Amino acid sequence: MDASQLAELRTMYVFTPIAGQTWGLTYDTLKARLLERDPEEFIRIQDGGQIRGSAMHYGITLEGEELEGYARIQPEGISILDSTAQAAANFVGWLREHIVPEGVAVTFNTAWGLEEDLPDAAVPEVTRPRLVATFLAHLEATGLD
């Protein structure tokens, strides 16, 4: 698969704190940050019971692209669905600026990476183009042909 095809691929990206750390994520904080961007943003919190726990389904528009995702408090993490590597890089930039406390690391994986049992990887603090390259290298590592 060539680079342009890889760049167009869409999958779920999952962002979590590094093992042993926390972002102190709450649905109220995430909801407030999303509504600061757009008071009409789609947000739904659902209680999944004792086994599944709760989850927050939300929408966010970044760089003109409408995206949807899920957040969970336990285990702590935020996902973005049906996303390109570029959109995921834009999203993690927003996460770092508005959700993740300064100095706390972020890890990522994708739906395909999880299926292939790839470990979560640290999101490097680099320029957006280099971050996109990191996400594309991850996609290649999943064995996509």
Main features:
145 residues; alpha+beta; seven-stranded antiparallel beta sheet; 7 strands; 37% helix; 28% strand; globular
Describe this structure as you would to a colleague.
With 145 residues, the protein is of the alpha+beta class. It is globular. It starts with a helix and ends with a helix. The longest helix has 14 residues, at 85-98. Helix 4 packs across helix 6 (128-141). It has a seven-stranded antiparallel beta sheet with strand order 2-3-4-5-1-6-7. Helix content is 37%, strand content 28%.
Could you write a compact summary of the structure shown?
By secondary structure, this protein is an alpha+beta fold. It is 37% helix and 28% strand.
Low-confidence stretches: none
State the secondary-structure class: alpha+beta
The overall pLDDT, averaged over residues, is 91
Shape: globular
Q: What is the N-to-C succession of helices and strands?
A: HEHEHEEEHEHEH
N→C terminal distance: 6 Å
Gyration radius over CA: 15 Å
**Oligomer classification:** single chain
The level of helicity is: 25-40%
Major beta sheet summary? 7 strands, antiparallel
Lay out the secondary structure.
Layout: H1 3-8, E1 11-17, H2 27-37, E2 43-46, H3 49-52, E3 55-62, E4 65-72, E5 77-83, H4 85-98, E6 106-110, H5 111-115, E7 121-122, H6 128-141
Antiparallel strand pairs: 1-5, 1-6, 2-3, 3-4, 4-5, 6-7
